[in-house]
Amino acid sequence: MSSTLNGGRESTCWSPVSWKQKGIYSQQVKYNDNATLDRACAQIGRLPPLVNPTTIDELKKHFAAAARGSAFILVGGDCAENFDEVQESIIRGKYSLLRDQAASIESAMQVPVHIIGRIAGQYAKPRSQPMETLSTGEVVHAFRGHNVNGIEVQERDPDPARLVQGYLFAAATMNCLSAASRNEGREVWSSHEALHLELESCQTKELYNTSAGFLWLGERTRQIDGAHIEYLRGIENPLGVKIGPTTTPQNLLAVLKTLCPETTMSDGRITLITRLGVANVEKVLPPLVQAVKRSQYRVVWMSDPCHGNGMVVDGTKTRSMSAMLDEVRNTINVLRQNGISLGGLHLEQTGEDVNECIAYHPVDDSIKLENGERYRTLCDPRLSGVQARRLVHDVAGMLRR
Ligand code: PEP
Ligand code: MN
Description:
This protein is an alpha/beta fold.
């Protein structure tokens, strides 16, 4: 790649495709036909940015403020977005949910709250196993998100044409979100996990990933010498890093050092999204916080109380709101003990009236968890609109200044 593209970072040899030198990467999708994949990516690369660099620069300032304690970042949306749910009422419902939650945190903390959807591109999922054996004995590809394949058994082969569809669905979603935010006056940004590297790199223009404002590195792709870190270290977008319970201070500092070369180091470049599980926070978090505090990195500490608190009830994946609230409470307390305030919250949620997570008082909610019409997530369970407003209301109470 030319030296103009990597903006003076020749010495470190980064380019939008330098991750390819890492060989086969974790969570890589195996397509039958790589020429079709290349053509799809080339086509997406010629399409206009979904998010412009100037907008990304604006968002960087908000993350910098959050790293200093003078702003708060709220991220929320589906675990895996569904192409079939790219509908005006559903998108507007997600927007209104974030808007209401932001107002509730703002009135408690008295700082600006910036909202970011897991939206307009959250179409690729990491899986523990690439293949799945069905009850019939048939072995098929695991569902990897609508950018890769469909949930129905006959749609499981990865299809590169879905990447182009994903771009178009993301564009339609962005259009709907910008109409919603123009009406209401609160801006909203997009985000997704930077997982599918062929897709991420073809949307990289100069040093910006123009597919979203905020991108995060997943817990399963955090290998220090891996392709995902290699790709992310070169781009200007604010970056999230999921932090699971096995993270050590040493490993965390190595990740920070790799993702923050001197050319890109700035307050709030990195958001540490802790997803430790309620039982692990008090043990695992303090040494991590102390190590980062002693370093030169000024990060945003964001709590994801969803991914460490999953459970299976009668064969159904769910989470309890009580565990989620407790994880956020413990996280706030550990940070406070170290003189830091929580800078963000990351939730899997939808504005819809789904029945996927267990409410504080299931009886009050008059629901029983069931694999029925109201359990329709493509991947992890989401808080319903009512549950998500309630949880954030309670978190806001803990953040009151
Ligand atoms: C997710 O955010 O949907 C996810 C897979 O999270 P994690 O990488 O933290 O497990
Ligand atoms: Mn998830």
